[in-house]
């Protein structure tokens, strides 16, 4: 299941729970209705807000039947009340009010939505009741898949002072399902920013929804930004896999960063195929880091992805080659350090320093890398800063690694990988 499929299913469950909550809240409105006995008409009320006994009796009976879950009989009685001649405006309002709730209980979503919306619009409903019935109507329209109406009622609900968080989620979900992506982005972004400013983690379902909106709009930049928030606030392997994949798939991502890309996948546990392990190990060996290549191969074997299947012989040959290369590399390790330190080119010095770090000599290797970067004048300095951050991580100095990663810039993918390293290491500090 893809990230988007998983998010869609989760959002459907969330929306369904919200609709249920709205209906439960609406059921409470039924209990607030005063008994429609004949004596009720004699109480002191504003002129026009009285109910004749013949109307009150039928409405009260319908309410009692609804409370007892005799929905069919409740519908019959409320229809009888509605059929009475010469109804006052207040009687019409009360009948529609109760009828809407019975229709909702009976599963008539369209009918219930219309009646509840009508009730909310009545001058006889108090301010608080208007909001309750607007919310209930929105819930019914949602169940009827009339997302335009849900969005319309949701906007009215908040304009009139409604503050229920669940209704905002329903409203935004309706904007998304109704294809009103521009407003959905605005609303979701505002919600997420409010949470971040308050020091709260934005809800996972809101971030998923915003990611879906950006994906539907083919906004790769927006999509990637939200994925970064998902791994920052709700770190899961699926999110890590998705956000790393999105970085590698962006236009302009440099092939030079293929090994850096693989290193992040290894760290986050999102390398899932034998081919990925093989390619990463080969890259390490090719750039003169056989110790890293051997470690990657060992990890592939430990994961059960290398050493089995039709490619097992190839995996064994690669493992043997990495071991031979490492043995040769160890014989000459450090012999050229003085010459590299005296050269004007810091690139080779950084690479040699990284090799020292990977071989367990962190103090010497990190100093060489820092010295190489200080030489300046390098064509791809941000790539090397990325390597420095990785070296500090390998050395177990994650705070210094974060500092180094934050200095990485550029539009070739290095800065994007560095930001993900900052998030990943920050969760382990």
Brief write-up:
The chain is mainly α and 429 residues long. It has helices spanning 3-32, 53-67, 71-83, 89-106, 109-121, 127-143, 147-159, 165-177, 181-197, 204-216, 220-233, 237-249, 258-268, 274-286, 290-302, 312-332, 337-342, 347-358, 362-375, 381-394, 398-406, 414-426. The two termini are 32 Å apart.
Order of helices and strands: HHHHHHHHHHHHHHHHHHHHHH
Strand elements, count: 0
**In terms of per-residue confidence, which ranges show pLDDT below 50 for 5 or more consecutive residues?**
24-47
Average residue pLDDT: 89
Biggest beta sheet summary:
none
- CATH fold node name of the domain at 3-188: Serine Threonine Protein Phosphatase 5, Tetratricopeptide repeat
Task: Describe, in plain words, how this protein is organized in 3D.
The protein is an all-alpha fold. The chain has a domain at 3-188: Serine Threonine Protein Phosphatase 5, Tetratricopeptide repeat (Alpha Horseshoe), CATH 1.25.40. Helix content is 73%, strand content 0%. The protein has helices at residues 3-32, 53-67, 71-83, 89-106, 109-121, 127-143, 147-159, 165-177, 181-197, 204-216, 220-233, 237-249, 258-268, 274-286, 290-302, 312-332, 337-342, 347-358, 362-375, 381-394, 398-406, 414-426. Helix 21 (398-406) runs antiparallel to helix 22. The two termini are 32 Å apart. Mean pLDDT is 89; it is low at 24-47.
């Amino acid at each position: 299941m893809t990230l988007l499929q998983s998010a869609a299913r989760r959002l459907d469950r969330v929306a369904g729970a919200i609709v249920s909550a709205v209906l439960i809240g609406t059921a409470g409105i039924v209990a607030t209705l005063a008994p429609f006995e004949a004596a009720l008409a004699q109480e002191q009320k504003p002129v026009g807000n009285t109910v004749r006994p013949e109307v009150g009796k039928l409405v009260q009976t319908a309410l009692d039947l609804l409370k007892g879950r005799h929905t069919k009989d409740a519908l019959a009685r409320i229809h009888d009340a509605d059929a009475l001649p010469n109804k006052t405006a207040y009687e019409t309002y009360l009948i529609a009010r109760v009828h809407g709730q019975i229709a909702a209980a009976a599963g008539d979503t369209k009918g219930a939505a219309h009646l509840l919306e009508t009730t909310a619009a009545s001058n006889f409903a108090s301010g608080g009741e208007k909001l309750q019935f607007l919310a209930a109507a929105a819930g019914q329209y949602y169940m009827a898949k009339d997302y335009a109406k849900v969005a319309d009622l949701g906007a009215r609900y908040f304009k009139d002072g409604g503050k229920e968080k669940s209704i905002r989620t329903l409203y935004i979900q309706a904007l998304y399902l109704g294809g009103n992506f521009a407003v959905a982005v605005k609303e979701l972004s505002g919600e997420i920013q409010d949470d971040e400013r308050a020091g709260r983690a934005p809800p996972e379902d809101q971030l998923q929804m915003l990611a879906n909106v950006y994906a539907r709009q083919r906004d790769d930049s927006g999509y990637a930004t939200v994925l970064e928030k998902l791994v920052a606030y709700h770190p899961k392997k699926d999110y890590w896999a998705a956000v790393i994949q999105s970085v590698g798939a962006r236009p302009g991502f440099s092939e030079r960063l293929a090994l850096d890309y693989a290193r992040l996948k290894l760290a986050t546990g999102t390398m899932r195929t034998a081919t990925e392990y093989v390619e990463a190990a080969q890259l390490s060996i090719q750039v003169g880091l056989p110790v890293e290549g051997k470690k990657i191969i060992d990890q592939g074997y430990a994961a059960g992805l290398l050493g089995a299947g039709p490619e097992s012989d190839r995996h064994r040959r690669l493992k043997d080659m990495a071991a031979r290369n490492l043995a040769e590399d160890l014989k000459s390790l450090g012999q050229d350090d003085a010459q590299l330190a005296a050269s004007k080119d810091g690139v080779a010095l950084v690479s040699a320093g990284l090799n020292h770090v990977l071989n367990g000599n962190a103090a010497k290797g990190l100093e060489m890398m820092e010295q190489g970067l200080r030489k300046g004048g390098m064509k791809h300095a941000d790539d090397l800063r990325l390597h420095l951050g990785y070296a500090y991580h390998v050395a177990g100095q994650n705070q210094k690694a974060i500092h180094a990663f934050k200095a990485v810039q550029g539009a070739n993918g290095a800065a994007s990988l560095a930001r993900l390293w900052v998030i990943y290491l920050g969760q382990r500090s």
